[in-house]
Design a protein that fits this description.
With 130 residues, the chain is α+β, with helices and mostly antiparallel strands. It has a domain of 69 residues: Translation Initiation Factor IF3 (2-Layer Sandwich). It is built from 4 helices and 4 strands; from the N terminus they run H-E-H-E-H-H-E-E. It has a 4-stranded mixed sheet with strand order 1-2-4-3. The longest helix has 18 residues. The chain is flat, with a radius of gyration of 26 Å.
Length: 130
């Protein structure tokens, strides 16, 4: 075995350490969660108790399209409560929520925005190129 100085490493040991450094994953901060895939899921909203599962899906980074007619068939007040709670939740996490027609709601996690077309006000004349 070759004699090594106090702070010297043999070539095999240096190579082994370099490989470990290159293959080591970068440190992840505890508050940052890495998401491998984002899914778009279509789910029915049947009960108020479904809201917890919906919140968890959005927290995990998924985009949800919720069909609200099953709950609307039972109680319109429950629909209003559920949509209000989801709206507050989306704002609290920095996500987005919008209605898709009469029967569906889409809710998105942070960093995903819903594009909304701005419609011109009917009382104002449209600008002309002249």
């Amino acid at each position: 075995m070759p004699t090594l100085g106090l702070f010297r490493k043999d070539k095999k040991q240096k190579l082994h350490e370099q490989i470990e450094e290159q293959t080591a994953s970068p440190p992840v901060e505890p508050s940052t969660k890495t998401v491998d895939k984002i899914y778009l899921k279509a789910l029915p909203l049947r009960e108020i108790s479904d809201l917890e599962a919906i919140r968890n899906e959005v927290k995990n980074g998924n985009i949800l399209i919720l069909r609200i007619t099953p709950l609307a068939g039972k109680s319109i007040e429950d629909v209003k409560q559920a949509v209000g709670e989801l709206h507050d939740f989306a704002e609290a996490i920095g996500g987005d929520i919008a209605r898709l027609g009469e029967e569906r709601v889409v809710i998105c996690p942070p960093k995903v925005r819903i594009w909304r077309e701005k419609t011109p006000v009917q009382n104002e004349p449209l600008p002309t190129a002249a």
